[in-house]
Design brief:
- The protein has 708 residues and is of the alpha/beta class.
- Helix content is 40%, strand content 16%.
- The protein contains 23 helices and 21 strands.
- The strands form four sheets. It has an eight-stranded mixed beta sheet. A seven-stranded mixed beta sheet has the order 15-14-11-10-9-8-17. A four-stranded parallel beta sheet has the order 20-19-18-21, with helices on both faces.
- Strand 10, helix 6 and strand 11 form a beta-alpha-beta unit.
- Helix 19 crosses helix 21.
- The protein starts with a helix and ends with a helix.
């Protein structure tokens, strides 16, 4: 047979088979004139705080979102990406059990969607490949499975490790284990005359968005189930593609995101959005402590349809066959009270929880506090223990825990927080926000003969301002014992002239056992205090200040952290008072305080100015510049420093960066805060062993010599 004819026959019979379940007889359609009265449509997007592989809990939260939406007479509800299984299942996506449990939960949820159209996400196995899918439930039935076409495979995302990308325009018949036959792939669904398409998270971030093709086929509503992690200023980008998608495609666009610290490192900020015909009509809050939030609005389908019709550039695809569109009967007028929603036609955009949603200080505060709260409760820990030195890093963690409790109580109420932390007896006994802080946070100052009264006072003042329990432990005797033991073993005295690093590090390491003991006693998380700048150059003592169950600051640079502490002292987050006690921290030059006082040790003296370090790090790591290119980049930014100093600091950075990759590999889990993260487990891979840029640093030195 002619190959062309063979392909035509195969296509014909596939179309016949597909039409068996995509084109019901006209007599089955209860609404033969779907546009006669149905111009207003109630739609909703939900954000959920899910947990990977928590089948019962995830299903309960999905069910709660459906019920909230039903109470608001929402007809179309979009839920987040992979919300049945959880987004962060990692290699568990390759478990047959994950696929089976997800399908069971989907079938359990389906009956709760009677009278509604609901999109819910789960992994699907087809032809021995796993696909990231959104199931469209219509009137209690599983109607279609739409597969993600563009996978997020950069930075914190590893989707291509588990999933395959679905080819555009392809639809197949999926046979489930329980005998159901459902269309799977790039499916458009005509639900009672309302045509629905999908862009699943990354699909909307690429140049060839599926929405452009959907628009040519007359789609009315695009659903975007997402699991889009928080990064500074990222929400502004999301708003742009939601708004532009609704305008350019002439549709109503529903965006639903995950919420909270779902699986440990990534923080999801929520922020559901609804846009129609180029206008944002509803935006949900970010960084909520709630498990479920439904944002809803009423949209005018005729308005979005006619806005597209008015576009001279709009050229729809006119076909004699509609095999690529699944037709499903649905009565939109059932359970719909048009009068009750006329008031909802006004713009429904609540005020952000801070004056400017793009303020980095506010974003950092809310992301960290939500991340800490979820990490606490999802790990079933009973609180936090912190080695509070009186310096910037540990003080930042102290106040973050304080704000965490305050924000949670403000939103959920005292009883709501107690319910979330029902497993912690000390929280149940608390009668105020201050008592909850004291129940959850223990701060320990551990001084040696090299510690001074300034840092002790700063630590005491900050702990008191937050309301934390404060303990003071003198570890100098233990340091002396270790020093004496080693001196006896090697047969000589240790001196600062010959053993500087060893004498510094033993003080930091001796602090670790006692705080770990307290964390064990309290059944609490130990907070590691190292920041991203220190991680870049290894300016941290392994098994000392890096000790911890979690390292919340490892994703933020020291330069911003110092700025943020000054902002907290003078301004503070919206809706909360500033913390004047931070002046005792901010007035100091950052110091490890491990050498004798007469050495006047400072962090920047040991390393370089933190603003310079931050600029070199971004040039070297984010922009992947060579040492010479990094120097040429920072030279005009720091004219107040000599060429020799800048060259020395660039060489020091690259040398220490290469030498200390093993430390970054060992850091406790950190929060992902921006897309310049150094965490090798989620973002920045670098060999533990390398040449150390020998040739490149020689080029830099030669350039500096010629520059003189």
């Amino acid at each position: 047979m002619n190959p062309w004819a063979l392909r035509w026959c195969q296509s014909f019979f596939v179309t016949l088979r597909y039409n068996r379940f995509v084109s019901p007889p006209q007599s089955q359609t209860p609404n033969p004139q779907p546009h006669a009265r149905m111009q207003l449509l109630a739609v909703g997007s939900a954000v959920l705080n899910q947990i990977p592989l928590d089948w019962d809990g995830n299903a309960a939260r999905i069910g709660a979102a459906i019920e909230q939406a039903r109470a608001n007479e929402v007809q179309i509800l979009c839920l987040p990406e992979l919300c049945i299984s959880g987004y962060g299942c990692e290699d568990a996506f390759l478990s047959a059990n994950t696929r089976r449990q997800g399908w069971r939960v989907l079938n359990e949820l389906a009956p709760s969607t009677v009278g509604m159209v609901v999109a819910v996400g789960l992994p699907i196995l087809y032809q021995n490949a796993v696909y990231n899918c959104a199931a469209l439930l219509v009137d209690g039935q599983i109607t279609a499975l739409v597969a993600k076409q563009h996978l997020a495979g950069d930075g914190i995302h590893y989707e291509p490790r588990w999933f395959k990308a679905w080819p555009a325009g392809q639809v197949v018949a999926y046979q489930s284990d329980d005998g159901q036959e459902i269309p799977l792939g790039d499916v458009l669904v005509d639900v009672g005359g309302v045509r629905i398409g999908f862009e699943i998270c990354e699909d909307a971030w690429v140049a060839n968005r599926p929405g452009a093709r959907h628009a040519l086929r007359g789609v009315d509503v695009i659903l975007n189930p997402s699991a889009s992690h928080f990064a500074f200023a990222k929400d502004e980008i999301r708003q742009r593609f939601v708004l532009e998608g609704s305008r350019a495609f002439g549709v109503t666009y529903l965006y639903a995101n995950m919420l909270g610290n779902e699986s440990g490192r990534a923080i999801f900020d929520g922020g559901a959005m609804i846009a129609s015909a180029g206008k944002m009509v509803a935006i949900g809050p970010q960084f909520s402590f709630a498990d479920v939030l439904v944002t809803s609005a009423v949209v005018d389908l005729d308005r979005s349809r006619m806005s597209r019709a008015a576009s001279g550039s709009y050229m729809p695809i006119v076909e004699t066959s509609t095999a690529e569109v699944l037709a499903v009967p649905f009565n939109w007028l059932r359970q719909w009270s048009e009068d009750s929603h006329r008031a909802s036609l006004r713009t429904n955009i609540p005020a952000a929880p801070w004056p400017n949603a793009t303020d980095k200080e506010e974003e950092f505060t809310h992301a960290e506090t939500l991340g800490l709260f979820d990490y606490l409760r999802k790990s079933h820990s009973h609180g936090f223990v912190l080695s509070l030195s009186g310096g910037a890093d540990s003080s930042a963690l102290c106040v973050l825990v304080g704000y965490m409790v305050r924000f949670a109580v403000t939103e959920l109420g005292l009883d709501g927080v107690k319910k979330k932390l029902a497993y912690i007896p000390a929280v149940q006994a608390a009668n105020s926000t201050a008592e909850i802080v004291r129940a959850l946070l223990t701060c320990v100052y551990q001084g040696t003969r090299n510690s001074g009264p300034v840092t002790l006072n700063a630590a005491r003042q900050v702990a008191a301002a937050v309301g934390a329990e404060f303990l003071n432990i003198d570890i100098d005797g233990i340091v002396e014992q270790y020093t004496t033991i080693v001196e006896g073993a090697i047969g000589r005295k240790l001196t600062w002239a010959t053993d500087d690093i060893a004498l510094q590090n033993i003080q930091a390491r001796v602090r670790s056992p006692s705080v770990w003991m307290l964390a064990n006693i309290r059944r609490a998380l130990l907070l590691a205090t190292s920041n991203r700048s220190e991680a870049a150059v290894g300016y941290a003592t392994m098994d000392g200040d890096t000790s911890g169950s979690i390292s919340p600051l490892a994703g933020i640079d020291k330069n911003f952290l110092r700025h943020w502490l000054r902002w907290l002292e003078k301004v503070g987050p919206a809706g909360a008072e500033p913390l004047p006690a931070l002046r005792f921290v901010n007035e100091q030059a950052p110091t490890a305080e491990l050498r004798p006082a007469e050495s006047k040790q400072t962090d920047e003296g040991d390393l370089m100015p933190y603003d310079v370090l931050d600029a070199i790090e971004r040039a070297a790591i984010l922009d992947r510049r060579s040492p010479l290119e990094a120097y040429q980049y920072i030279r005009p930014l720091f004219l107040q420093h000599s060429r020799a100093d800048l060259g020395l600091w660039v060489e020091r950075f690259f040398t220490l960066w290469c030498r200390n990759q093993w430390k970054r590999e060992r850091y406790a889990p950190s929060f992902h805060l921006d897309d310049a993260n150094l965490d090798p487990k989620t973002w920045c891979r670098f060999p533990i062993l390398s040449s150390g840029y020998v040739r490149e640093l020689a080029e830099l030195r030669a350039f500096l010599a010629e520059e003189k």
